[in-house]
Amino acid sequence: MSSSRHLAAVFTAAGSPLEIQDRPTLTPGPNDLISEVKSIALNPVDHMQRETGFHVSLNPAVLGSDIAGIVVASGMSLNVGARVAAFAAAFWIEGIPDYGGMQQRYCLRDARRCSSRQHQLQRSRIAPHVCVHSGMLVWGGASSIDSAAVQSAKAMGYSVHATASAKHHGYLESLGATRVFDCKAAGVEQQI
């Protein structure tokens, strides 16, 4: 790592705007890794925590539960340079700032809750979606998790069918869905 400090969006009080603050970059413990944050998924719980202070025991806190990035230091077997998607457990650890996802560069992670793109994806691990032969159905494909499932299934060679409201069909096709069905249409199950 080139720096021992980085910036983070910090929560200081319920309902207040996030503040940008300088944070120390820590050394990972035996079950941790440090990832350079490349993207952050905002979830309803992130908004709820910022708005109400729900499940935040420390101030300042760093919120944010899902990130993708590149490993820059690891106490486990994930290689430096590996691309990872990670569950940044800000909600479950009540906002402990070292683990929140809303950080500009470096974010401490429990390496056991990371998935490396260097690992071979296995078709049987994409539950709860339905996989049949060389096709996969993703119900509600426009959500953050399911849009990732569409892309992962496409990358593994599946023919991907997805459901979503009509306004999201073009988006899902751009992610690789072969066919998209209107989840609100009468008889959508028979159409599929």
From TrEMBL:
Q: Which positions fall inside the Alcohol dehydrogenase-like N-terminal domain?
A: 29-113
Keywords, ordered alphabetically: Oxidoreductase
Q: Does the keyword Ribosomal protein apply?
A: no
Keyword flag Oxidoreductase:
yes
By its UniProt entry, which InterPro entries does this protein fall under?
ADH-like_N (IPR013154), GroES-like_sf (IPR011032), NAD(P)-bd_dom_sf (IPR036291), Trans-enoyl_RdTase-like (IPR047122)
Which domain of life does the protein's organism represent? Eukaryota
Q: Assembly and interactions?
A: Monomer.
- Give the protein family: Belongs to the zinc-containing alcohol dehydrogenase family.
Name by which UniProt lists this protein: Chaperonin 10-like protein
